[in-house]
Amino acid sequence: MPDPAGCRVSEATAADPDLLRSILPLLPQLSSSPPPLSLAELERIVSSPSTRLLVAKDDGGRVQGMLTLVLFLVPTGMRAWIEDVVVDEGIRRGGVATALVQSALAVAEAAGARTVDLTSRPSREAANRLYQRLGFEIRETNVYRYRAQPAGGAGAAG
To answer: Which of 19, 44, 48, 155 is most buried by its number of CB atoms within 10 A?
Structure first.
């Protein structure tokens, strides 16, 4: 779908080396220590029935940003979660993130999601303003994280 930001947002439906090469430079901008992403892992992401990898490209086909939308059914209804929103740092504040999030919300709504959640560090002030401008509300909740130990990692029997 075309967007006023001058990008086109679409769902990645197939993993190929070109897509992988296009998104790899975004990962360090998303996380200071991203795990290596292989073509096989990218294939698992795009072929998962619960995951939608949305990619924003400019008119020349260059990837400008991406977002992952996860859809899941629980006893209280269909829910959605937005993860890994990243726009290339050279073109931030140009509307690409807005286009990605609005596209994700449209996909979630079409899938029947009752809610769409996301988290954002307080230090990401521009991102937090964007999410609030798009209708997200800050929730009074605690977010907990459990870090699983990798197989064969610390504490593994050997």
So the answer is: 19
